[in-house]
Amino acid sequence: MSNYQSNEIKLINTSLIDPHPDNPRKNIGDVTDLAASIKANGLLSPLSVVPNGSRYRVIAGHRRLAACKQAGTGAVPCFVLDLDPLQQLEAMVTENCQREQLTVLEEADAIQGMLDLGATTANVAHRLGRSADYVRDRAKAASIKTEVRATRDDFSQLTIGQLVAIARYDGRPDLQKRLAQAAGTSNFDYTLRNIERDDRDRQWIESVAALLVEPNNGFNLIPDPPYSNPEWRYLGCMFPSTGTPEEAIEKIREQNPAAVSIHMEQVYLWARRDHAADDEKEARRAAEQAERDARRHALEEYAAASADKRMAWLHANLYGIKRDKLIEATARLGLLQIIDPFPGGFADALTNWNDHTGSREEYEKITGITAEDAPTAARISLQTNDWPLEATSILAARFEWFIDPEDWTTVNDTSRRIPGYYQILQDLGYTPADDETNHLDQLIAAITEADSDENEEDEENNQ
Known about the structure:
Blueprint: E1 9-13, E2 17-18, H1 32-41, E3 47-52, E4 55-60, H2 62-71, E5 75-80, H3 85-98, H4 104-116, H5 121-128, H6 132-142, H7 146-149, H8 160-167, H9 173-182, H10 188-212, E6 221-222, E7 232-238, H11 245-255, E8 259-263, E9 266-272, H12 275-317, H13 323-338, H14 360-367, H15 374-381, H16 387-402, H17 418-428, H18 434-462
Parallel strand pairs: 2-4, 3-5, 6-8
Antiparallel strand pairs: 1-5, 3-4, 7-9, 8-9
């Protein structure tokens, strides 16, 4: 502002001074306290104005002018400057930026105004004492249209990073509005990444499509995927993750499809259907599926039968087991279950009993107490001298609840505990059936193999 300062001060009535229409600062705020100070002490710092016909426009001191008018002040001292429109805007921007009175968007609009009046990026950067990138970013933010800004009342308070991201999608107001709504929330980065990914995918599919229709490429590009056409068979699909558009074209060429279609940012490859081969393949798939279904059904039947056998034995025998052995079983079951992927562990046995799940039904099979009465009965029994019996029942019921059929064939956190659970039951007197022993042996072998593979992988990583 100092470069435009005049040494000549003139008294001008506030009724002749108007706010500048291009003032970057759109909201001057509450000037009540400033008006009271001016009323008591007078205007201590002159305004800077430019002539406007028979009137004047304020360049520096919009808040002071508003306060003077509110205080009823008559003539005020003013520096009268001779500035062209670009210099006027430059002076207002410089003053407001130095005083940090502008929002990022107000500053952006003002900088764009200076550029529109002929200033260069370098000129503006020099006058503001900022970098060229600083100016360019704000010029980008200024390009955001009114309809996008109107999506939220506090749009002017967004950060420059958010504004530049929104401005990047100029001409696509739907995306800009999505970003504007997400700005200032934890969803902004997530929304931006999704938009960027979708944009990359769109560009990728457009490039692939352009390569597919190049002369002499030999591709049969059809308009829509022939999903329901019995003469076509799905051969494969190319995604943006396949590689560059050129790499995708080479992979399509290697598969030599009879036709190619594009749908939903993906390239579908199609072959003419060989009905005899397809029928044979379908029959093989059906046979394999039937075999899988049979194995799954057999496993489900085994799991249900073995669970019923265990719980029936517990129901019939726990009462006859000595107290010290039950205390030991409680400790072992607790230790077996306490390190667990679920919050609170298996041993957190009562807190999930809010309905007939959460091991209530298993508890009923073991104790004979109805599922509805389980929480009350368990809490009462745990406070008596028979608490070891009750604790063993609760922990066993809890374990039975967690064992699913697939735990017998899949190595996971639950299946790893099944052999230990059986050992505890056997030490209490339980005798597994031959079928249970076979399944246990297979499960232990699978766990051993998984641990061996994991150890080998660790050794390779440590080498």
